[in-house]
Predict the structure.
Amino acid sequence: MKKVLACLLAGAMVFGVSATTAMADEEKTVGILMPTQSSERWINDGANMKEQLEEKGYKVELQYAEDDTAQQVSQLENYISMGVDCLVIAAIDSGVLVNAEAQAKEAGIPIIAYDRLLMDTDAVSYYATFDNKGVGTVIANYIKEAKDLDAAREAGESYTIEFFMGSPDDNNALFLYNGIMEVLQEYLDDGTLVCKSGRTSFEDTCILRWSQETAQANCENILTANYADEDLDIACSAFDGFAYGIKAALQGAGYTEENWPLITGQDAEVMATKNIIDGTQTMSIYKDTRLLASKAVTMVDAVLQGSEPEINDTEQYDNGALVVPTYMCTPVAVDQSNYQEILIDGGYYTEDQLK
Ligand code: BGC
């Protein structure tokens, strides 16, 4: 009899606990802020986050700010006054969010930084991202191997290169630049790589808000001013959007298949992958946004349910107020040789999407 009672009680407790967890999940709302729909990756990020959070029983609010910083601030303030339970933020310019983030903290709303670190705030609990310096080293190592820079150095040959780096208000952009220069600086120093515009510093090559139009205009100006007599061999670009602008500038300047340069990118967007297939872009960086979303979801669970999220970096991401516990996903280079296996067989895109 005692045994039966104990069993019944245990059963009731188990049932009771799981029922409260499920109910708590249902009642909790996660407010997601994404920077822009102008680039495909953020549309995927938002959709993946929404889907994965809803599967777990959370209510989801999702807003895009179209790269307008004031709009993102008001979206954040709005979420705080709605009383959302948790915030997931991919910032446009995290500098302008600091006050609203402090209000969120006051209101007891935890914040997860998504892909881009939130700077100068102690209101952020966790950060889910890709290895941002790693993105730079993967791009640069790709260039190093594709052009066999060591052999070129031995033979006393050189390649021309120009740089198109990310937005100065996005912490990721400097990490990426540093990763690139960790590999390529020595070849610039010894003349194996020649940057005819002389623009090699981050300050001289960064592009505000990751603008495709600015990348195109910069490339047009550089080609006119510096490449009248010699071809550009390498366009080291930090973003697929830049690669589209560079492609347009090169076509405008009369480049053809014969002298088309090596062009890098980031995000492995559908358009970029099509360009890789037809040879007008050489490579991109594949970032599996499904994986990133799943890591961010474990962080939402952690702050709302008290579980432990998976963390693999507690050193790199100092935001000026604290070193933010981070999960870094691994970026992968894709080009003509492996897009089929990685993007199609991996289920990221269908064959039809790339036609
Ligand atoms: C992201 C990149 C993206 C870029 C432009 C960066 O913060 O890490 O994946 O290409 O923003 O949207």
